[in-house]
Amino acid sequence: MKYVDEYRDGATAQQLARAIARITTREHTLMEVCGGQTHAIVKYGIDQLLPGQIRLIHGPGCPVCVTPIAVIDKALEIAARPEVIFCSFGDMLRVPGSRQDLLGVKADGGDVRMVYSPMDAVRIAQDNPQREVVFLAVGFETTAPANAMAVHQASALGLGNFSMLVSHVLVPPAIESILGAPDNRVQGFLAAGHVCAVMGYWEYAPIVERHRVPIVVTGFEPVDILQGVYLCVTQLEQGRAELENQYTRAVSEAGNSQAQTLIRTIFRTVPQHWRGIGEIASSGLGLAPEYAGFDAEQRFGAVGRSSGEEGECISGEIMQGRKRPGDCPTFGSRCTPEHPLGAPMVSSEGACAAYYRYRGTEVNDPETASP
Questions:
Q1: Exposed, middle or buried by CB within 10 Å (0-12, 13-18, 19+), for 156?
Q2: 262, 247 in Cβ contact below 8 A?
Q3: In this structure, how many other beta carbons lie within 10 angstroms of the beta carbon of residue 163?
Q4: Which of 35, 178, 286, 353 could form a disulfide with 62 if both were Cys (CB 3.0 to 4.6 A apart)?
């Protein structure tokens, strides 16, 4: 296997793959819900190591990819205002909205700055009291504690010129939505280890019980992922549906209680629209009423009235596991990382970016394309 040979524990990975093949007697469809795991799967050819009866499909595990166009359009309008310093992580700068991206606003004269932490934006607000400083707060539960801390710190410092445009999403409701779809094919999930390191994995137990599907908390190394697949397939072959933790070196059932307390203090659970997917109940985080003064959407009024059109991008179908990047007619031709038509080709965790980077046109081969 030309990919896994590049991995330092390639021999162990191949042993795990053979162990999976020995226990597999029928077809199984598994979904990983983490863009980091998707990239590891594609980079090291993990899907091609597995027996043909096992199909790995990629879920909505890229937070950049699921940020709705309406939020991007709000960001574009706010960032273009002369009184605003707009701060964002780098992978959001090239995500297309209805008309352009944040780099386009910067090229047009907007003060758009890439930061490495929301606390960088807090410091910029301290240093520029005459300007409005806005941070684009996106991500799953993994980035929520840092964003919550930034609001907490801004409140403690009395920074009236700091605000956030918030578009946080939560993993468990997304899994519920996938399992509840009429055309669902997923029989087991590999849950994202870093999300569970923050939130624990107790929230997944009711999902396992309701839907009778195995969920295995899984890490990010190829050996982690293959062991997660092994545990999931073992359950399916034995007719079991349980919650297991492969990533014991980093994840406990309870998670990080201090981070959870901070999230509950600053945020409240809200309905959330997912780009390409639609609204999922109780799947997002919004600022709590007592911190509404830090809500950029409220501060700047009704902005970013987007049509919400996806154009040619089939990101929604890709993120729900219904299609793969190679099923898109624009993949690798009119849609590339240099000229992306959609977020999955932009983000470092996007499925399209992974396939383009590690497999190129090989993604269109019958072995890797959707049936």
A1: exposed
A2: no
A3: 27
A4: 35
Instruction: Please tell me whether residue 54 adopts helix, strand or coil conformation.
Output: strand
What is the tens place of the pLDDT at every residue in 342-351?
888 988 789 9
**DSSP sequence for 224-245:** HHHHHHHHHHHHHHHT---EEE
**CA nearest 165: which of 151, 175, 181?**
151
Q: What would the CATH number be for the domain defined by 1-313?
A: 3.40.50.11740
- Going by C-alpha positions, the residue among 105, 139, 136 that lies closest to residue 120 is 136
Q: Are strands 84-88 and 243-245 parallel, antiparallel or unpaired?
A: unpaired
Where does the pLDDT of residue 302 fall: very low under 50, low under 70, confident under 90, or very high at 90 and above? low
Query: Amino acid letter at 130?
Result: Q
Please give the Cα distance from 359 to 33 (Å, whole number): 21
DSSP-derived letter for residue 26 is S
Tell me where in the chain the CATH 3.40.50.11740 domain(s) lie: 1-313
Q: Which two tokens stand for residue 126?
A: 């301290």
- According to DSSP, residue 371 is labeled -
d(CA 91, CA 114): 9
Convert 93-116 to b/e letters by CB count within 10 Å (16 or more is b).
bbbbbbeebbbbbbeeebbbbebe
Q: What is the Cα–Cα distance from 36 to 251, expressed in whole angstroms? A: 16
